From TrEMBL, chain A:
A GO cellular-component term linked to this record: glutamyl-tRNA(Gln) amidotransferase complex
Name of the featured protein: Glutamyl-tRNA(Gln) amidotransferase subunit A
Entries under SUPFAM superfamilies matching the protein: Amidase signature (AS) enzymes
NCBIfam families hit by this protein: gatA (TIGR00132)
Automatic annotation (TrEMBL), chain B:
Role summary: Allows the formation of correctly charged Asn-tRNA(Asn) or Gln-tRNA(Gln) through the transamidation of misacylated Asp-tRNA(Asn) or Glu-tRNA(Gln) in organisms which lack either or both of asparaginyl-tRNA or glutaminyl-tRNA synthetases. The reaction takes place in the presence of glutamine and ATP through an activated phospho-Asp-tRNA(Asn) or phospho-Glu-tRNA(Gln).
Quaternary structure note: Heterotrimer of A, B and C subunits.
Any one biological process term the GO annotation gives: translation
Organism of derivation: Sphingobium wenxiniae (strain DSM 21828 / CGMCC 1.7748 / JZ-1)
Protein name, per record: Aspartyl/glutamyl-tRNA(Asn/Gln) amidotransferase subunit B
GO MF terms, alphabetically ordered: asparaginyl-tRNA synthase (glutamine-hydrolyzing) activity; ATP binding; glutaminyl-tRNA synthase (glutamine-hydrolyzing) activity; transferase activity
Family: Belongs to the GatB/GatE family. GatB subfamily.
Length: 500, 500
């Protein structure tokens, strides 16, 4: 255990280490909160936070310290401060979804997932930046300016890099030791891709594991909350507190929450890992391909049997996703109309329609508008069957692909993203190039399956690359266990050099 | 009985009118369709609004089981197919009274399928023509809020109390051919809804309103283009709207014009319909399955519970009143036309049978006659309804029992009833206090008879001379002398003896 005066050492600790160190008396919860608050305050250059809430972190820490002093039973996350993606509504704290539309909006209610975390004893360091309404893969669509990755390319290239998206504030903050863990949400890869870009882990659980109540909706049939942290164990710890049935969300699963942390084991003997051949297209980045091969060896080393499987409809996943997600978004975002809350633009003499137009023109950024227009188009009379109905059929086929594959194996191993992090501005002009970032993550989202990103190594430029593990519905445990096996063998210890 | 078809006489001959009704009925439920907010009529604006109803960010709908149950029961009451699998769809459009920017409805898979309603064109004439009107479907959906334009010179206010209230949309087949049939259908539907208890049927409070589809054609010809007159809120207005709209369409067609498929409004002050918007301006509602909600699946136990909970329905009740209670067809029809009337009658019947120790059949006729003549007459005079009747069924039964056992005469009963209406007293008590008990004391009656005969010697002469019609005069005089309290049978006997 580190010396209690070594603030830097405190912020290097994992969630499990903070939890256990606090319990064992190595340091107080307040010391931990202060250390992270200091790091947050000193990292404005990363722009990871939209709102900082050091007082909330201290409040939870003090409650934990008092409980400990009084000899009370400690909550599972007592003493652990975390970051909260600014897509989760937080009572009394501005919640914006990184949009101008909701700038200044302060909910009177707390999202189910964030409430569960606070109830478990966690403290809030602040609201983390993201792509606007969670739409984006680089964090460049945030109204509050993009997050900058703490990572730099080797060799003097000082380009500001993308932390991934949409949970880019979460990924950057964890990689830069501004928080030991954070919440993310994942609609088509928004936890996994930023985790891969920043050398951390993150899991999107089975659709329905975490309540969506109080999370600003992007695409309801795909949105799922999950944790992001530096270790697999930390993800298991957080997910246990985040998951669980919520009667306020009709799509949440009425199932017991497994004890994932207690179930962790990197012994994969008897497990079969499938390698989907469709994920290895001709132009696949050689370094990604090489990492994937290493991943296969690591899993074999952990005792798993590796088999090739086929997911024949993979090539249709991205277009299917970019019909279904915008369709749902176009409807979900209709409520931002300037009538009841948030942005309202009311030009002189304007009627209702003028107010809608002015409000939405000013309140939404270009990517959000693009997706609303795509979504409106694919649901329009005359196009609905050709796009939306067809996409739903393909979605069912993609889910079927996974079901068939899981007759031959227990898990799938793939790359997380087709490349390492790219420079900010590099892909912004070409939305399609940006959408390709999701090519490996979107299929599991469409099928509602649990999927996790774990860091595997660095590329030649010194940037992190991630591997993705996909499991059967509800089998987060196997996903976490395979993640742990990789984590142990990859020995990923790289961290961004502090420049901020 | 021969049917006289309803025809519009145009310059080019006869025209037939084709009518279909879409009735929106507010489901009787303490809570809204997808939120726990209350639904009372007439509450202060925006006092019955939950976070869900106001479409705050991150809010999710959860179906209210009671609303679903009421829709299923309604479907069962019209012998409709109940769909064990149904689904909610979003109907997308922008309006200030629609916070979500979409209405949750059921376009593709409604909860109730084909059913039927039998109408009687003259409910008081059992021999009148009956006709079966098809019901295509019943689906459940959310109501919108209300805009108030009279609160501010330049701005509109929004009241969201109704936002999210559950409605059933009951869609008829275009089976009606006259305003009278449409009126009879609407009345019958309202009766059924009130019996079932799924809607209070109060059209003046907006709990029930009809969209009226009207087209005209040459008798037996091809269907014409229809117009839809929205939100008509009384049976009379529906009939007026059809009359006006049908003859307007005939005028247009005979002048060589074409009917435009459009939405129209009914102006009750002028008795006219006028154009609201044509098909070209119609919204593209971009219906798609609501991704926040799972399909609605009903199990057999739930359906059985719904079936068991259904009351005796008006048609069955009317037949039973005729057959088992021996009531006239007219009385049976009037007593069953409203659920409240039947409920009151059955309470009167049950109490009457109990206090008189007779079967319901034995007390039915007297009870029905008293209710329909005495009580209804009094209520009409007082401008009241059964609901706020000053006399309870228990009081009525007590009064009828006093007549039946000879305690008072029918004439005295009328007096007692008047006193009950004024004072709210109990009949037996009134009879005692006012000394109205009928006497069979032959001594007293004989004395009165003697006095009457003595004072009318001339009439006695005439009677004995063969003018037997004068007997009634003597009865009247004797009763008068006895202040109405003499047992009429005893009076008859004694008079006959004295005049012999």
């Amino acid at each position: 255990m580190p010396n209690s005066t070594d603030k830097n050492a405190l912020t290097d600790l994992t969630v499990a280490e903070i939890r256990d160190g606090f319990r064992g008396g190595a340091f107080s919860a307040r010391e931990v909160a202060e250390a992270f608050n200091a790091n947050v305050a000193a990292a404005k250059a990363l722009n990871a936070f939209i709102v900082e809430t050091p007082e909330k972190a201290l409040e939870a820490a003090d409650a934990a310290d008092r409980a400990k002093a009084a000899g009370e039973a400690l909550k599972p996350l007592a003493g652990v401060p975390i970051g909260m993606k600014d897509l989760f509504c937080t009572e009394g704290v501005q919640t914006t979804a990184a949009s101008h539309m909701l700038e200044g909006f302060t909910p009177t209610y707390e999202s189910t997932v964030s409430k569960k975390l606070w109830d478990a004893g966690a403290g809030m360091l602040g609201k983390l930046n993201l792509d606007q309404f969670a739409m984006g893969s680089s964090n460049e669509t945030s109204y509050f300016g993009n997050v900058i990755s703490p990572w730099k390319r080797k060799g003097g290239d000082n380009a500001a890099l993308a932390p991934g998206g949409s949970s880019g504030g979460s990924s950057a903050a964890i990689a830069a030791r501004l928080c030991p863990a954070a919440t993310g949400t994942d609609t088509g890869g928004s936890i996994r891709q930023p985790a891969a870009f920043t050398g951390i882990s993150g899991i999107k659980p089975t659709y329905g594991r975490c309540s969506r109540w109080g999370i600003v909706a992007f695409a309801s049939s795909l949105d799922q909350a999950g944790p992001m942290a530096r270790t697999v164990r930390d993800n298991a710890i957080l997910l246990e507190s985040m998951a669980g049935f919520d009667p306020k969300d009709s799509t949440s699963l009425d199932l017991e929450v497994p004890r994932w942390e207690a179930g962790l084991s990197s012994d994969l003997r008897g497990r079969k890992v499938g390698i989907p051949k469709e994920y290895r297209p001709d132009g696949l980045n050689a370094e990604i391909a090489a990492l994937w091969d290493r991943g296969i060896e690591w899993l074999k080393d952990a005792g798993a049997e590796v088999v090739e499987v086929s997911l024949p409809h993979t090539q249709y996943a991205l277009p299917t996703y970019y019909i279904i997600a915008p369709a749902e978004a176009s409807s979900n975002l209709a409520r931002y109309d300037g009538v009841r809350y948030g942005q309202r633009d009311l030009p002189d003499g304007a009627g209702l329609q003028d107010m809608y137009a002015a409000t939405r023109a000013a309140g939404f950024g270009p990517e959000v508008k693009r997706r609303i227009m795509i979504g409106t188009y694919v649901l329009s009379a005359g196009f609905y069957d050709a796009y939306y109905t067809q996409a739903q059929k393909v979605r069912a086929l993609i889910a079927r692909d996974f079901e068939l594959a899981f007759e031959k194996c227990d898990l799938l191993l793939t790359p997380t993203a087709p490349s390492a992090s790219f420079a900010l501005g590099e892909k912004q002009a070409d939305p399609l190039a940006m959408y390709l970032n999701d090519v490996f993550t979107v299929p599991a989202s469409l099928a509602g399956l649990p999927a996790m990103a774990v860091p595997g190594g660095l590329d030649a430029q010194g940037l992190p690359l991630g591997l993705q593990i996909i499991g059967r519905a509800l089998d987060e445990q196997s996903v976490l266990n395979a993640g742990l096996a990789i984590e142990e063998r990859a020995g990923f210890a790289a961290r961004p050099e502090k420049w901020w | 009985m021969t049917q006289t078809a309803y025809r519009i006489q145009g310059a080019t001959g006869e025209w037939e009118v084709v009518i279909g009704l879409e009735v929106h009925a507010q489901v009787t439920s303490k809570a809204k369709l997808f939120s726990g907010a209350a639904t009372a009529f007439g509450a202060e604006p925006n006092t019955q609004v939950s976070l869900v109803d106001a479409a705050m960010p991150g809010m999710l709908p959860v179906p209210n089981r009671e609303c679903i149950r009421q829709a299923v029961r309604t479907g069962m009451a019209i012998n409709a197919q109940i769909n064990k699998w149904s689904r909610f769809d979003r109907k997308n459009y922008f309006y200030a009274d629609l916070p979500q920017g979409y209405q949750i409805s059921q376009l593709y898979h409604p909860i109730v399928g084909e059913g039927e309603i039998e109408i009687n064109l003259d409910e008081k004439n059992p021999d009148a023509q009956t006709k079966v009107i098809g019901v295509e479907r019943i689906h459940v959906e959310q109501d919108a809020g209300k805009l108030m334009h009279d609160q501010h010179p330049t701005r509109s206010y929004v009241d969201l109390n109704r936002s999210g209230v559950a409605l059933m949309e009951i869609v008829s087949r275009p089976d009606m051919r006259s305003p009278a049939e449409a009126g009879a259908y609407l009345s019958k539907l309202r009766t059924i809804l009130r019996y079932v208890g799924s809607c209070d049927g109060n059209m003046d409070q907006g709990s029930m309103r009809a969209d009226v589809n009207v087209s005209v054609r040459k008798p037996g010809g091809e269907l014409g283009t229809r117009t839809e007159t929205k939100n008509v809120n009384s049976v009379r207005f529906v009939m007026q709207a059809i009359e006006y709209e049908a003859s307007r369409q005939v005028d247009v067609l005979e002048a060589g014009g074409k009917i435009v498929q459009e939405t129209r409004l009914f102006d009750p002050d002028k008795g006219e319909t006028r154009s609201m918007r044509s098909k070209e301006d119609a919204h593209d509602y971009r219906y798609f399955p609501d991704p926040d909600l799972l399909p609605l699946e009903l199990d057999d136990a739930f359906l059985e519970e719904c079936r068991q909970s259904l009351p005796e329905l008006p048609d069955a009740k009317r037949k039973r009143y005729e057959k088992d209670l021996g009531l006239s067809a007219y009385n049976a029809a009037v007593l069953t036309a409203e659920a409240d009337t039947a409920r009151w009658f059955e309470a009167l019947l049950a109490e009457g049978a109990r206090v008189q120790k007779k079967s319901e059949g034995e007390v039915a006729k007297a009870s029905a006659n008293w209710l329909l003549s005495e009580l209804y007459g009094a209520l009409n005079r007082l401008g009241r309804t059964l609901e706020d009747s000053p006399v309870t069924p228990e009081d009525g039964a007590e009064l009828l029992a006093l007549v039946a056992d000879g305690t008072i005469s029918g004439t005295i009963a009328k007096q007692v009833f008047e006193i009950m209406l004024e004072s709210g007293g109990k009949p037996a008590q009134i009879v005692e206090e006012k000394g109205l008990r009928q006497t069979s004391d032959t001594g007293a009656i004989e004395a009165a008879v003697a006095k009457v005969l003595a004072g009318n010697a001339d009439k006695v002469e005439q009677y004995r001379g063969g003018k037997e019609a004068l007997f009634g005069f003597f009865v009247g005089q004797t009763m008068k002398a006895m202040q109405g309290k003499a047992n009429p049978q005893v009076v008859n006997e004694l008079l006959k003896k004295a005049l012999a």
